[in-house]
Amino acid sequence: MTDETRIRMQSMAPAIIASPAKRIEAFTGDPNFMTSLARGLAVVHAFQERKRHLTIAQISHRTEIPRAAVRRCLHTLIKLGYATTDGRSYSLLPKVLTLGHAYLSSTPLAVTAQPTLDQLSEQLHEAFSMATLEGDEVLYVARSATPHRLISVDLSVGSRLPAYCTSMGRILLAALDDAALDDYLAHAELQIKTSRTLHTPEAIRASIAEIRQLGWVIIDQELEVGLRSLAVPLKDSAGQVLAALNVGTHAGRVTRKELETRFLPPLLEASTELSQRLFH
Questions:
Q1: Maximum distance among all alpha carbons in the chain?
Q2: Alpha-carbon gap, residue 244 to 12, rounded angstroms
Q3: The model scores a pTM over 0.70
Q4: Where in the chain is the domain with CATH 1.10.10.10?
Q5: DSSP-assigned beta bridge partners for residue 245
Q6: Is 20-98 in CATH node 1.10.530.10?
Q7: Phi, psi dihedrals of residue 138, rounded to the nearest 5°
Q8: What is the pLDDT of residues 192-226, one digit of tens each?
Q9: What's the rounded Cα separation, in Å, for the pair 211 and 272?
Q10: Which CATH code for domain 107-279?
Q11: What residues have CB less than 8 Å from 76, skipping those under 6 apart?
Q12: b/e per residue, 208-219, with b = 16+ CB within 10 A?
């Protein structure tokens, strides 16, 4: 693998930042930096899987961008066909997928992983995915689902989920150094999704300490009742974590013990094979 390809893949896991507005402010004084464009992109990123309809006030709170600027961004997105409104709340339209889907599905990481995910899904009859860390969320870059194994969370390439309560997110957070993890826990919205959700910095730190020892994690219905998942890291030749691989199952169908005995070995083997294919 060339240095250029390795750099491209490593860049898919950027450093944790405080907020979109603060990141934009850091470029104040750069005559070539377009603040309006940066704000528009931040507004697009404010929408999440479970927050598809947002008001101007909610977007302003999420991004720390003034409401007047948020309103102008939304007006522009609507005019260009990327968003719509019912008069009060706003939502994105399918056209926004054109901004990132082609890139995500054609990166070396995704292209190399897809056949492996497809093989795992065919062999074990469950949904397998790969994601990287993007700010406070995991970004799905490859996925192989089975149509007869449906869960209510609708996921595809380009989907985002919170990092703190998902298996791939917990794996990727465990790969951060202590300073970056402290920064994440200081500003991330640790919401209670279910009665099982770990939502305090102390509880998440304890889970991460265990992950760093085991090298894998099972998240048991923390994001959604009935959703149980297992994740492992994907590392480069230097041992740095580039992405995470996972399998998502229904808790009523697959036990924690079965995840460890039946699904963990092939997932770890797939991670090792992918790493060797990419870097050796």
A1: 57
A2: 12
A3: no
A4: 20-98
A5: 130, 232
A6: no
A7: -95, 140
A8: 999 999 999 999 999 999 999 999 999 999 999 99
A9: 17
A10: 3.30.450.40
A11: 40
A12: beebeeeebbbb
